[in-house]
Amino acid sequence: MSWINSIVNLLFKSASALFSRPGVKEVSEMVLAANSGDADAQFNLGFSFENGLHGLPQDHVKAVHFYKLAAAQGHALGQNNLGNYYQFGDGGLQKDHHEAARYYKLAAAQGNADGQLNLGAFYMNGLGGLEKDDREAARLFQLAADQGNAIAQSNLGIYLRDGLGDLPRDDYKAAHYFRLAADQGNAAAQYNLGQFYAYGRGGLRKNDHEAYGGLTCKGRK
Hints:
The chain has about 220 residues and is mainly α. Helix content is about 65%, strand content about 0%. It folds into 2 domains: about 15-115, Alpha Horseshoe (Serine Threonine Protein Phosphatase 5, Tetratricopeptide repeat); about 135-220, Serine Threonine Protein Phosphatase 5, Tetratricopeptide repeat.
């Protein structure tokens, strides 16, 4: 199994919870607020259509419509999720990695962890007109990892283990990030942490039981 393959499949739509602001909880109020220009309500409505929540049908075209409205007002979550739609060519949009990268940059610049993760992956793979740059990918993964993003923590662990992005090889730090991600249920991190237990790396005492648990959980996900 390629170690790089374990971090390529990491771009997905934000699973951020809906805002619970008073006044936009009910669908009718959410629609009214969205149509009045409330960016949070526009994002919430887009998220509801994307996932079929609040009794609304799943409708990716409508989700894109409301994400565009929110993104145009600088809503970071809306920008990231719109980037996802451009990346995968869904919701009536043509696949456009350049547009995806543009929206990921906007979201990442506001400190959005999902945007930082997705932009990091674009730099890692040289997508969206961006030159492949593992150093920038590592920087973005670090920013997202510091906010508790499990995928970014797992990716950063791999970068530290393998010395990518001009990071010095550091099994101790790699084990730390693998554990943080593994504790959140990230399968790739659980597998990699199991590898460390199997060989006694990263300051971990060799432990066949912990190794087996980590190495088998990836297959169960």
